[in-house]
Amino acid sequence: MKLDVVLGLQWGDEGKGKIVDVLAGNYPVVARFQGGPNAGHSLHFEGKSFVLRSIPSGIFRKDAKNIIGNGVVLDPITFRKECENIEATGVPVKERITVAKKAHLILPTHRLLDAANEAAMGKGKIGSTLKGIGPTYTDKVSRNGLRVGDVLAPDFADRFRKLKERHVRMLSQMQFECNPEAEEAEFFAAVEYLKQFELVDCEYYVNKLLEDHEILAEGAQGSMLDIDYGSYPFVTSSSTACAGACIGLGVSPSKIGHVYGIFKAYCTRVGSGPFPTELFDETGEKLRKIGNEFGAVTGRPRRCGWLDLVALRYAVMLSGVTDLIMMKSDCLDTFETIKVCTSYKVDRVETDQVPFDTYAHIEPVYTEFKGWNADLTGCRQESELPKEFTDYISFMESYLGVPIRIISLGPDRDATIMR
Ligand code: IMO
Ligand code: MG
């Protein structure tokens, strides 16, 4: 059977949680393969709302298994809080979640290092979510990290102390004032909680499941935050494109089936870094208000702008997207004119490619569409969609070379049109 992948194609916050929750109905297994509690995947159903951080969005589906893969970085403290919240609603989380032993652990001192690094960068800071993501992946790559499977070792406390002391030395070199012990007791209690879950060799576990189950891999963040292909250095520290699912779960590329790429009908970004179509005027303000564009993790207002098809086509290429999913087009219902960026002028030279230089001056070149001026939120069938809207969709499909299979017109599970 195949591993289908769902990815965010922009700067995160595309609506992955809702779509995975909708698609999870068709998949017996949902797996996260990268990122960590920097993600905030929002789900709304039956009048309830949840924000998931490390837990896969299949958790509310009765028969779905949920895997936290080896490419993920897991914070036992956040994970426990998240699980207990959901457990309180009657969901048997311990039966539904399996964790890879090779996933790396976020220590409380990783979060302190994240804050210290950002403080040291001053104005040039990344705008990290401060969840310890960068320092944990750094320890993984520099071969200092601790992994979930290590919690079972008799000398885990010693290994923890060794890594913590390394972090304390770094923090004092950076003259960062903090109490590195503040969350230690909570961390060890959360590690005991984590031990109650099934901890597995993810690569064997996933490949065995694939013999007779389809699996949905749920990406976090978005292609433009990818460590290699995003707007470096303003990126996250993991591979957010499709190839990351292979590494993050231990699965061969030949097993990949559909690649679902999610994008919003406009763009948002939280944190620093280039954003060619960003709007600083009342149109941007209106998008933020209608789209309720405030961070699910940090509460920060998101920067808003028009849809960037140059960046989107780049993301489609990187991941071999087979099916596009468009979110939040209903947020454009009241705009007279809708713009999409179809090329860039980089230092006055026109191009349809994303430039290497993150700091280059990029001027977006727009194609304009007449707004549909109609309420899309009630539409449940393609035939109910206004012509201006379907023309706009056709334009995007021909620019991107991939069909738009799902259109989401509101946060609820049922506000979804399948094409
Ligand atoms: P979901 O999965 C939006 C951004 C941060 C920052 C940069 C690096 O909800 O789409 P990090 O904490 O990863 O070191 O921060 O990446 N960022 C996200 N932006 N949605 C996310 O996740 C994000 N995860 C990280 O704002 O600019
Ligand atoms: Mg987010």
The major pleated sheet works out as:
10 strands, mixed
Query: What is the arithmetic mean of pLDDT?
Result: 96
Give the cofactors and ligands: 6-O-phosphoryl inosine monophosphate, magnesium ion
Question: How would you describe the oligomerization state of the chains in this entry?
Answer: single chain
The number of helices is 12
The radius of gyration computed from the alpha-carbon positions, rounded to a whole number of angstroms, is 21 Å
Strand order of the largest sheet: 9-7-5-2-10-1-11-14-18-19
The percentage of residues in β strands lies in: 15-25%
pLDDT < 50 runs, ≥5 residues: none
| DSSP strand count | 19
Whole-Å distance between the termini?
Answer: 24 Å
**Class per helix and strand makeup:** alpha/beta
Q: Given the C-alpha coordinates, what overall shape results?
A: globular
* Helical content (DSSP H or I, runs of 4+): 25-40%
Describe this structure in words.
With 419 residues, the chain is an alpha/beta fold. It has twelve helices and 19 strands. The chain has helices at 16-24, 76-87, 93-96, 108-121, 133-141, 156-173, 184-194, 202-210, 243-249, 282-290, 309-319, 387-400; strands spanning 3-8, 29-32, 41-45, 48-52, 65-68, 73-74, 97-100, 104-105, 198-200, 215-218, 256-264, 266-269, 303-308, 323-327, 337-346, 349-351, 362-370, 404-408, 416-418. The strands form four sheets. Strands 9-7-5-2-10-1-11-14-18-19 form a ten-stranded mixed sheet, with helices on both faces. Strands 12, 13, 15, 16 and 17 form a five-stranded mixed sheet that branches. Helix 2 (76-87) packs across helix 7 (184-194), helix 4 crosses helix 5 (133-141) and helix 4 runs parallel beside helix 6. The radius of gyration is 21 Å and the shape is globular. The relative contact order is 0.16. The mean pLDDT is 96. It binds 6-O-phosphoryl inosine monophosphate and magnesium ion (MG). 6-O-phosphoryl inosine monophosphate (IMO) binds at residues 8, 11-13, 38-41, 126-129, 131, 133-134, 220-222, 225, 236-237, 270-271. 6-O-phosphoryl inosine monophosphate is lined by residues 8, 11-13, 38-41, 126-129, 131, 133-134, 220-222, 225, 236-237, 270-271.
